């Protein structure tokens, strides 16, 4: 699944290509909105919020196009007449101006809502690691709340397994981290993903590392998420998807397991030597 830096880059591309322009043609290939025509409307801007994209469009009313890449989605900005990089049947929405064709392929979510409904879509998210209002202290507070949820469900009702790996993937704690960064951040912090949140010695350090990695890759020259400093294929990551391979630091075999509540389990990877577990009771 694309992570926060990928979505942030997509928002910047759409914003540069469309903002301040009038739409000359729209084609929404989703049944609920198939009859919508926003031709003549003005694109105000596009922003990212965690893994969500919000494209604001002004017609007679103020609308927001909400899209989410999910696992396979992408936005491509093309010139008129340029050949599409993916089959036409995978397109979910097309936005055209006089000089740009923006196509959303295989998007997991496409919906058009009134602008004042944006809080219903993204209001539940934690601090955005790449947002202008990033708040590290609030992210740490929410992670601690997640720790409490691991022992007794609090009023917020966070679904959790109590592990730090699961907590970092919960977008209500902090928004933008996916499996790649969760694994790599915890390796750099020297913490097993199976460690209970309450057993992590320095959650603030974990949050700082997450912010640093996403910011570096969002503004970097490489499209891939590079955490080792080496962008060569197969060398980008310390532990992610390296099950059975030797740790780049100590040579110990990388292992894998599932973290997160049963309905949202994700596979995680770690080095048992560099990332010792700090809790005797896991699960």
Summary tags:
elongated, N-terminal domain of MutM-like DNA repair proteins, 283 residues, four-stranded antiparallel beta sheet, alpha+beta, single chain, Helicase, Ruva Protein, domain 3, 25% helix
Describe the structure.
By secondary structure, the chain is an alpha+beta fold. It has two domains: 4-122, MutM-like, N-terminal (N-terminal domain of MutM-like DNA repair proteins, Alpha-Beta Barrel); 136-270, Helicase, Ruva Protein, domain 3, CATH 1.10.8. It is 25% helix and 20% strand. The protein is built from six helices and ten strands. It has helices at residues 4-18, 118-122, 136-151, 164-169, 179-189, 203-219; strands at residues 25-28, 42-49, 52-58, 62-68, 74-78, 91-96, 101-105, 109-114, 255-259, 266-270. The strands form three sheets. Strands 1-6-7-5 form a four-stranded antiparallel beta sheet, with helices on one face. A hairpin with a 3-residue loop joins β3 and β4.
């Amino acid at each position: 699944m694309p992570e926060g830096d990928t979505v942030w880059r997509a928002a910047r591309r759409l914003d540069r290509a469309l903002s301040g322009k009038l739409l000359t043609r729209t084609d929404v290939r989703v049944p609920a909105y198939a009859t919508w025509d926003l031709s003549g409307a003005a694109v105000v801007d596009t922003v990212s919020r965690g893994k969500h994209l919000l494209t604001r469009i002004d017609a007679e009313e103020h609308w927001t196009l909400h899209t989410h890449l999910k696992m396979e989605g992408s936005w491509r900005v093309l010139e008129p007449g340029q050949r599409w990089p993916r089959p036409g049947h995978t397109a979910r929405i097309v936005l055209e101006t006089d000089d740009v064709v923006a196509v959303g392929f295989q998007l997991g979510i496409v919906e058009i809502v009134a602008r004042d409904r944006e809080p219903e879509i993204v209001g539940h998210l934690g601090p955005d690691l790449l947002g202008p209002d990033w708040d590290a202290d609030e992210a740490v507070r929410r992670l601690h709340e997640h720790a409490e949820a691991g022992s007794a469900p609090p009023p917020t009702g966070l679904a959790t397994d109590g592990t730090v790996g699961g907590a970092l993937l919960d977008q209500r704690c902090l928004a933008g981290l996916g499996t790649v960064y969760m694994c790599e951040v915890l390796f750099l912090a020297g913490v097993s993903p199976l460690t209970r949140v309450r057993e992590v010695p320095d959650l603030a350090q974990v949050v700082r590392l997450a912010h640093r990695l996403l910011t570096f890759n969002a503004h970097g020259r490489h499209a891939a998420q590079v955490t080792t400093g080496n962008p060569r294929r197969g060398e980008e990551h310390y532990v992610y998807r390296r099950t059975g391979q030797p740790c780049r630091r100590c040579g110990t075999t990388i292992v894998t397991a599932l973290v997160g509540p049963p309905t949202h389990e994700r596979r995680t990877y770690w080095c048992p030597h560099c990332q010792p577990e700090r809790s005797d009771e896991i699960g």
